[in-house]
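INTERNAL TRANSFER SHEET
From: sequence group
To: structure group
Subject: [acyl-carrier-protein] S-malonyltransferase

Please process the attached sequence and return the structure record in the designated field. Keep the field labels unchanged so the import script can parse them.
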Amino acid sequence: MTIWLFPGQPLQPEQATPDDADFHALADLCRAYCGYDLITYKPLAGHPLSHHTCLQIYGVAMSLYRARKLRNAGSVPSLISEHSLGIYAALAASGSIAEQDALELVSRIGSCMSQMGAVEEYSLGCPIGLPIDPVEAAARNNGVFVANYNTSRHFLLAGSKQGIEAALAECQAAGAFSVSSFPCEAPLHTPLMAEVRDDLAAIVAEYHIAEPQVPLIESFGQTCLTAATIPAFLVDELQQPVYWERTWKAVRATGFSRCREVGSGQALTKFNRWIDSEAGTL
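Return from structure group:
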């Protein structure tokens, strides 16, 4: 049994750009449905896409590209799972939406979320090496949130820039062996996203969602999504944390024989090795 894992937004584009028919087909879809040039990594003239929205489109496009290449090589998933914005390509791979809909959805949702950055300056913070209790305390003490529970020692915080900086300083003082921060336009996977909930729901309501043809485990409650639950999930997941450690353990319990990370980079693969090493299943 093969499982495909779809990662979230990359921090930057890959150095090498593919040059084959599948990549150019997806580049055409990006231009047509997003106003984004997948080759230059820039929006087309007349399409005011933000830097972060461009990265989100890029991430989904590269996941779709890698899914095409895997299928061409004979790989067929028996199970699919997703992390954060990986949900859009995961839905396409499951047969629930078309590739162009996955790209257009992430473009429109990304543009909607980017409006939050015009009012407030947000950041992401990554403390590594601490257990969850001091991380949650630091988040609570500084008005920010744990957005990703990736492993027992790797977390992502989201919230105001000032709050993130203060929370990371607290984590460092508590013994974290690494802290880093990144600018962002919206505090994804936190209750603060309720500000644009109605706008996001209106966007999602415009799309036809079919029943997934491959079981798709989501990364909040580790349930299998259905056509009936997907629309609400696409809105709700942006207000809820990603619980990747729980998700990977749920996936592990299915007894798969082969795992493929389908996207840009190897972030999930690294998280999984960490989780497996602690559980003694590596």
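Handover comment: The first strand starts at residue 2 and ends at 6. The two ends are 18 Å apart (CA to CA).
Transfer complete.
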